[in-house]
Amino acid sequence: MTYTPALSRYNKMPYNRVGNSGLKLPAISLGLWHNFGASSSFDNAKAMCRTAFDLGITHFDLANNYGIPAGSAESNFGKILQQDFKNHRDELIISSKAGYDMWPGPYGEWGSRKYLMASCDQSLKRLGLDYVDIFYSHRFDPETPLEETMGALDTLVRQGKALYVGISSYNSEQTKHAAKILKKLGTPCIISQPSYSIFDRWVENDGLLDTLKENKMGSIVFSPLAQGMLTNKYLDGIPDGSRASENGFLKTSDITQVRVAQINALNEIAQARGQSLAQMALAWVLSKGDVTSAIIGASKTEQIVDCVGATQNIQFTSQELEKIETIAKP
Ligand SMILES: NC(=O)c1ccc[n+]([C@@H]2O[C@H](COP(=O)([O-])OP(=O)(O)OC[C@H]3O[C@@H](n4cnc5c(N)ncnc54)[C@H](OP(=O)(O)O)[C@@H]3O)[C@@H](O)[C@H]2O)c1
Predict the structure, then answer these.
(1) The domain made up of 15-228+287-313 is a member of CATH 2.60.120.10
(2) How far is the CA of 250 from the CAs of 63, 106, 138, 237, in angstroms?
(3) How confident is the model at residue 128 (pLDDT cuts 50, 70, 90)?
(4) Helices 72-80 & 42-54, crossing angle to 10 degrees?
(5) If residue 181 lies in a helix (H) or strand (E), which one and from where to where?
């Protein structure tokens, strides 16, 4: 059936400026790491993209290695773009990344110019696009000079293959260095993509959030629901079909008794606020004003609807914040 996007799609979603760039991102973005590859239902993946766009999610986050097998999330999203979003390309922000293991041999991962340039070309082919909106170095490469990795990002922009560039999972010191190199090259590093959630605080301890502010960069945080732990999914243990039940990136062993107790205690605060736990967890990352967008993952359209509801209340009382801190402490 032909898809016609909801006319109401821009009515509720807040759009936040990425650092001091001209780009704005929706407060909630959708990531295609899990559940969009060839081993997942294509119809469900397509339904999730439609639901997201209908709710004002204009940003879809990908990487070369997403999907099982790697690359298939980009291929599937390319098909979805062709079938549903062909006439809406200019309403979309599509990102991809290179950094992790993608093809055999010495040129298939990390941060060399050879790998980044080839990987971006492969991603564009799979996506069926002339350019991505944001291209990221997916991880810091301790062996390649940062000048080379950032130089490749700059070249991709100059070749018209990426409009903006960013870095992912770089710590504060690495970010300062990357930002300085890119500034000198005349291609600003506009965005950083770290993990961040009530359960995952490395960006606070590392000083990354302050560094981003100092460098006028935006931030888009991944796994804001701690891969589903900050939802009502694991209140009573591990349900069938959940990410933890697959024992992949989220391990069965991550769902400890202590974790389940924390999840239940946080759920009580969420209920008192009139939110689902997923909504409160997203509101929490967005409430501090340091985060431009939170990238959620999803396995069902209903989860996206629930998550987008978070934007309706991102204010917290100091008592709520204190309670969350007490519960979240390891
Ligand atoms: N740059 C990087 O290195 C990096 C690394 C990881 C992720 N990312 C990006 O961040 C995106 C999100 O990561 P993530 O999938 O780990 O994020 P997440 O939002 O923390 O977790 C997503 C999972 O939470 C569950 N969920 C979502 N909404 C729910 C709801 N309302 N109620 C109940 N359960 C809900 C679903 O689990 P079930 O599947 O169990 O239903 C879903 O798959 C990725 O797709 C990717 O784009 C980037």
Answers:
(1) no
(2) 19, 28, 19, 14
(3) very high
(4) 60
(5) helix 172-185
> What are 207-243's pLDDT values in tens digits?
999 999 999 999 999 999 999 999 999 999 999 999 9
Rg (alpha carbons) of the chain, rounded to whole number = 19
Show me where the domains of the chain are located.
15-228+287-313
Determine the angle formed by the axes of helices 301-308 and 42-54, rounding to 10 degrees: 20
- Residue with the nearest Cα to atom 42 of ligand 1? 298
For the CA of 306, the nearest atom of ligand 1 = 31
- From 303, 304, 311, give the residue whose CB has the most ligand 1 atoms within 8 Å, as the site to mutate: 303
Q: Which residue is it, tokens 């509101």? A: 283
Query: Count of alpha carbons within 13 Å of 33, Cβ hemisphere only?
Result: 17
